[in-house]
Specification:
alpha/beta
Length: about 250
């Protein structure tokens, strides 16, 4: 069991509102949910409901920070968009799903995005591992992140969505590249790979971060049944996110 109480930072929180719900009502409900689960700060996306995201960041900057999905195929237009988000909304994280875009994470089209993230001081969170969707998994092979991490040692890379079935390789690469980390996004506590838990308990406590990336109720239920050592919990739930996302 972790020491209590612990504050949580959730970089992949799903900020949503039902059709017809006023923005203020949605934000109030979101804050109540964050308080219920002990979430100190939540990373919210600009992609699904930009108006809601802007309002949440403007009204509660201490509770929310900005992230956005990136499409490197848009070239300079996309880089300028990231610059605007960083300037106007304090962008802290960029996400990407290589398999959905049919574009390998080590494709050279990604390289300007990586360079821009370094320039802006923004972390990038790529989905790695076999995706649930019926798309080719090759773009998300974990081995592909090796070249990227080596070529951009200043780039903070946070692998998300499991890295399965290559979670053991993900651990080896994190030991090789100090700029690599692992997010437990979209995984229920019981689904976090044993290799990741062992890595955190051994020498990787500074490289494993919590994230929901899905319904908070399901993710937080049973969270503290994960077999982390006592010293891992503060880093896993909060401290690593503060460092990696420069909060």
């Amino acid at each position: 069991m972790p020491p209590a109480p612990l504050a949580v930072i959730d970089p992949l929180y799903a900020l949503v509102r039902a059709p017809g719900i006023p923005i203020e009502t949605a934000i109030t409900a979101t804050l109540a949910e964050l308080d219920r689960f002990g979430v100190e700060r939540a990373g919210i996306g600009f992609d699904d409901d930009p108006e809601l995201a802007r309002a949440a960041l403007a009204s509660h900057p201490a509770r929310f920070f900005a992230r956005s999905e990136v499409d490197p195929r848009r070239g300079m237009e996309e880089l300028r968009r990231l610059e605007r988000l960083a300037r106007d909304h304090g962008l802290r994280a960029v996400t990407t799903s290589p398999a959905r875009r049919f574009l390998p994470i080590d494709d050279k089209l990604f390289y300007p995005v990586f360079a821009k993230c370094v320039e802006l001081g923004v972390a990038i969170c790529p989905s790695l591992g076999v995706p649930e969707e019926r798309v080719p998994f090759s773009p998300q092979k974990v081995e592909r992140i090796d070249e990227v991490a080596g070529f951009f040692p200043e780039l903070r890379i946070v692998m998300k969505d499991g890295c399965e079935p290559w979670q053991a390789l993900a651990v080896l690469l994190m030991r090789k590249h100090p700029n690599l980390a692992y997010l437990t996004s979209r995984l229920l506590p019981s689904e976090i790979p044993a290799e990741i838990v062992a890595f955190a308990n051994e020498d990787g406590a500074h490289q494993v971060l919590f994230a929901s990336g899905g319904p908070a109720e399901a993710v937080f239920k049973g969270l503290f049944e994960i077999g982390f050592a006592r010293h891992v919990w503060p880093r896993f739930l909060r401290d690593n996110a503060v460092r990696v996302f420069a909060l």
